[in-house]
Input
Amino acid sequence: MRFGTFSRLTLCLAAWIFLASCKKPEPLQIGFVGGLTGKAADLGVAGRNGVQLAVEQRNAAGGINGRPVVLVVRDDEQNPETAKRVVGELLSQNMELIIGLMTSSMAMVMMPQINASKSILLSPTVTTPDLSGKDDNFIRVAGTTTSYAAKNARYQFEKLGIRTVAAIYDINNKSYTESWLNDFRSAFTALGGRVIQVRSFPSSKDMIFQPLVKELLAAKADSVMIISNAVDSALICQQLRKFAPGQRIAMSEWASTERFMEMAGAAAEGVVVSHFFDRNDNSQRFKDFLTAYRARFNQDPGFAGVAGYDAGLVALEAFALRTGSASIKDVIIEKKVFQGVQQPLNIDRFGDADRKNFVSVIRGNQYVTGE
Output
C-alpha cells in the first residue's frame, strides 16, 4: 500500500471518529398523560405545565448526563378508552416513566395496563387510598384523601364549630370522591359531628344543580361539603349562594384551582378547602418557581402546577442518579426523600408520599392559608 493511500485512509478514519464523537446524544423521553380538555382540563393543563417547566430547566442545565429530555404529551380526555389508547402509545415507545394521570378514576383504569409493562406511572395528583400500600408500578408525590379529608373535618369541627354537614360528590371520579367522603365522614363522626345528607351526580356539560342544591339546603346542615372538580364546584357554590347567601361551604382539594376562583366569583368568599399547596409561602425556592412559571405560561400554577413540577423533579433526579441497570422505581424508592418546590417529599417503599397539607379560606378572591 502506498504511503499516500495509507494517509488518506487514516485521515478518513480520523474524520469518521471525530464525526461520531460529535453526534448528539439520544434524547431521553418521558411521557405525560392527563386531561387537557373537558371540565377537569385546568388540572391536566397545570400539571403538564409544571412538568414541562421542570424539563426545560433541566435541559437548560445540560439535561440528564448530557442527554436532552423530551416530554411526550398525551390528552386522556378524562375518558377511560382514550386513556388506554394514549398510554398504550407511550408504552409501545418503551418509555420507562409516564407522569400522570391526574385523577384517581383514570389511574385506577390504567393500573392493570401499567403493571403489565416495565414502565412506572408517577402521578402528581392521584390521591385515592385504593392504590396505597401496594408493591406495583405506581408512585405519587401527593398524599391520600385520608389526610386531606381529616384535616378539613378537624378544621370545620374545631375552628368553625360545624356539627352537621350535607355533602355532594361527583360519581364520575368515585375512586377519589367516595374515598374522600368516607374519610371525611370517619374523621368528622369521631369528633362528634354528623353527615346528615349526601347527594351524588354524574359530571356532564348538561348537569343542572338547582334541584340537588335545594335538597342539600333542605337538610339545614351547618355546612355543605362539595367533592368535585373546579367547574362543577363553582356552579354549585353559585346556586348555594343564590338560595342561602350565608351558608357555610367547604370543598375538597380537587376544586382548589384558579379556575374555581374565576368561575365562582363572589360565591367563593369564605369557602374552606384543605390541600398541600401553601399559596402564602414566602420561601425563595417557591418565589423563584412562581416567577419562572408565570413568565413561561402567563398564569399562576395552582396546586396542580406545583404537583406537576414536583413530579418532574422526582423523575429527572431519578434518571440522573441511576447507575447500571437499576430500574427507575428502585432508584426512587431507595432515594426516599426528594426536595419539592415547597417541602420535602417522603416516598415510602410502596411509592406513597407523605406530604404536609394546609387549610385555606377564600378571602377577597384569594386562597388564604389558615392552618
Remarks:
- Residues 146-275 form a domain with the Rossmann fold fold (CATH 3.40.50.2300).
- The CA atoms of residues 222 and 235 lie 20 Å apart.
- Confidence is low (pLDDT under 50) at residues 15-21.
